[in-house]
Amino acid sequence: AMALCLKQVFNKDKTFRPRKKFEPGTQRFELYKKAQASLKSGLDLKAVVQLPPGESINDWIAVHVVDFFNRINLIYGTMSEYCTERSCPIMSGGLKYEYRWQDDSKYKKPTKLSAPQYMCMLMDWIEMLINNEDIFPTRIGVPFPKQFQQVCTKILTRLFRVFVHVYIHHFDSIINMGAEAHVNTCYKHFYYFIREFSLIDHRELEPLVRILQGWGG
């Protein structure tokens, strides 16, 4: 089952496939284009994450959650060959932090998993949520559910753990691949976004606090 799960997640060149795109012509597609243009213009990332005047906060959060999911998917995919059952038998961030998996179906109690298993479960779980029209509605006029931001907090908290694992266990691989600047930019963007909208409990951020201090964050 694990091999099948990994086969579904990875394509031949060991990168994740982006799982969801925004439909052209929709409000969210326009917001996505606006956000990407700001990013590429080299603006300060703290300014880039701010809600544009007149826009809906839930639309803005939805666009970023999907975009971060796709980008973090790809980052992990580029180093998946270094993150194996043998090298990473526990999903962790150093000796101090261990992350257990829990969902509403197969794993009802927090369960120890290897890092590759955890990543596989995580990406499938997020994909299921962002493609669920009751949670991430795409039709015009359909409102977001009341628990939308809570769901996004859960998604972003778990995506943050991907950064924790990658930075603490695979940073040498990032450097060897020449991907350090790319990963750092993605992480900074993610961090400023979650901080702007208070989307993750500050205690979750502790494993990477030294990196943030190094950036003056």
TrEMBL record:
UniProt keyword list: Kinase, Metal-binding, Transferase, Zinc
Positions contributing to Zn(2+) binding: C83, C88, H165, H170
Top-rank taxon, per record: Eukaryota
GO molecular function annotations of the record: kinase activity
SMART domains, sorted: Mob1_phocein
A Pfam family that the UniProt record links to this protein: Mob1_phocein
Xref: InterPro entries: MOB_kinase_act_fam, MOB_kinase_act_sf
Protein name: MOB3C kinase
Organism: Calyptomena viridis (Lesser green broadbill)
Lineage: Eukaryota, Metazoa, Chordata, Craniata, Vertebrata
